[in-house]
Amino acid sequence: MTEGYKEFATYNGLNFIKNYAELKKYEAIAFDIDGTLIDSRVSYNETIYQTVSMFYQWVVGFKPPKDEINSSVARLRLTGGFNNDWDTAYTILMGLYSGFPDEILKVLSSTDYKFFKDYIKVKVNKESLIETSIKALNYLLMYADSKGLQSIEEGLKKLYNKKDKLNYLIKIKEKLNYPNLPRKSLLSTVFEELYLGMDLFKETWQAEPVFKIKKGFIEDEKVVLENDVKTFLKKKFGNKIGIASGRPKKAAVKILKDLLGNFFNPESSFFIDDVYARSKEQWLGKPNPFLIEEVIKNLNVKSCLYVGDSYEDILMVKNTRELGYEVGFVGVYGFSLDVKNFIQKFMEADADAIIPSVNDLKFLF
Question: Which pTM value belongs to this model?
Answer without folding.
Answer: 0.89
